[in-house]
Amino acid sequence: MKRTLVLLCVLFSTILFAQTDSTSVTVKSLDAKLTGYEYPYPVLYLILKEQKGVYNMAYMDVKPKNYNGRNVLLFHGKNFNGAYWKSTIDTLTAQGYRVIAPDQIGFGKSDKPENFQYSFAQLAQNTRALLMTLEIEKTAVLGHSMGGMLATRFALMYPEVTDRLVLENPIGLEDYQAKIPYLNVDWWYQNELNKDYAIIKKYQKDNYYGGVWKADYDPYVNILAGWAQGKDKELIAWNNALTYDMILTQPVVHEFKDLKCPVLLIIGTRDRTAIGKALVKKEVKESMGQYNKLGRETRTKIPNSKLVEIENVGHIPHLEAFKKFMDPLLNFLAK
Predict the structure, then answer these.
(1) In order of start, what are the domains of the chain with their CATH numbers?
(2) What's the CA gap between 293 and 308, in Å, rounded?
(3) Rounded to 10 degrees, what is the CA torsion of 322, 323, 329, 330?
(4) Consecutive sets of 10 residues in the chain, 335 residues long: mean pLDDT of each?
(5) Per its UniProt record, what Gene3D superfamilies does this chain match (predicted)?
(6) CA 182, 188, 189: angle at the middle one, nearest 5?
(7) Does residue 272 sit in helix, strand or coil?
(8) Rounded Cα gap, residues 29 and 36, in angstroms
């Protein structure tokens, strides 16, 4: 009974915030495939036949003018898509790298299935199929946020393909299901349906950016808010619920010791992102998402790993502190 009351209070406070926020921001409604939303490079599609369905997986394949023979695969986070890698892609291709930036099934411009069993293994397998189509046999892999969990699974499944691994403020450095109560997909679905611009911005401002907001961050709220009020909002909410369940029930933290390739951890130490921490008692909540500690703990778990900490930077170093992110990345890739 107490747990039910806590969850209801959390949900009520979320709704109350949305009703009392006085923001006058105008948000453009978006459909499930982000029609009309321009990516920085041409978007191509890979047709995947799996789980009794046929799905389109969007991706950007950006080739440099002077190819150095090396590739970089980018995995986006849960609340993002391939477009937010623009500056990273620009810099990497200028250095001669070919860059592949897919939108995973359920994200960005890719299809959002009604009936799909999401797993990091399935998404990794889809990405391997993309690389095979592009005739790429070996690549460096960079994953941010949820993409860090997927990048880890990819590296574990395909060590012969993964030349090196970079984890940028990955979620899943702790086992969330060991700390928060289990909530089924239906609960997460209803929670997603109640989100709007104010709720989404507050979450990102508090967790990603330490309470400081810049206009540069607006697009990453506007996309999610556009979906939340668009004609496909129920489909988007359902896919979000399914991927929350994937994150919570498929941890990779216990397998870091099995990684074989060189690994670079780039950690903004101000980050406090943790799935479900609003659902637990204060003392548990305060122990979650402590990236100033999690980065160092993770380095000890991963063989042949290096940690670069970026002080006073939050969840998305490649947006908030690009040079401090890119310099160690380029040094690591060049070795």
Answers:
(1) 2-334 (3.40.50.1820)
(2) 13
(3) 130
(4) 42 38 72 97 98 98 98 98 98 98 98 97 98 98 98 98 98 95 96 96 93 93 96 98 98 98 98 94 94 98 98 97 98 95
(5) alpha/beta hydrolase
(6) 150
(7) coil
(8) 10
Question: For residue 265, which of 228, 305, 236 has the smallest C-alpha distance?
Answer: 305
Residue type, 82: G
Orientation of helix 218-228 relative to helix 233-249, angle to 10°: 110
The token pair at 35 is 């029609």
Q: What are 238's two structure tokens?
A: 């359902």
For residues 264 and 305, the answer to whether their CB atoms sit within 8 Å is yes
Instruction: Please report, in angstroms and rounded to a whole number, the separation of the first and last CA atoms in the chain.
Output: 56
Q: Which two tokens stand for residue 334?
A: 């060049």
Buried (b) or exposed (e) across 129-153, using 16+ Cβ within 10 A?
A: ebbeebebeebbbbbbbbbbbbbbb
- For 14, 195, 204, the CA distances from 19, given in Å and listed in that order, are 9, 11, 18
Amino acid making up residue 334: A
Element (H, E) at 224: helix 218-228
Long-range pairs for 185-190: beta carbons < 8 A, 24 or more residues apart:
185/241, 185/242, 185/244, 185/245, 186/241, 187/7, 188/240, 188/241, 188/244, 188/245, 189/237, 189/238, 189/240, 189/241, 190/11
Half-sphere CA count of 15, side-chain side, radius 13 A? 10
Residue with tokens 């006058």: 24
Taking alpha carbons only, the member of 78, 120, 24 closest to residue 223 is: 78
Instruction: Indicate yes or no: pTM above 0.85.
Output: yes
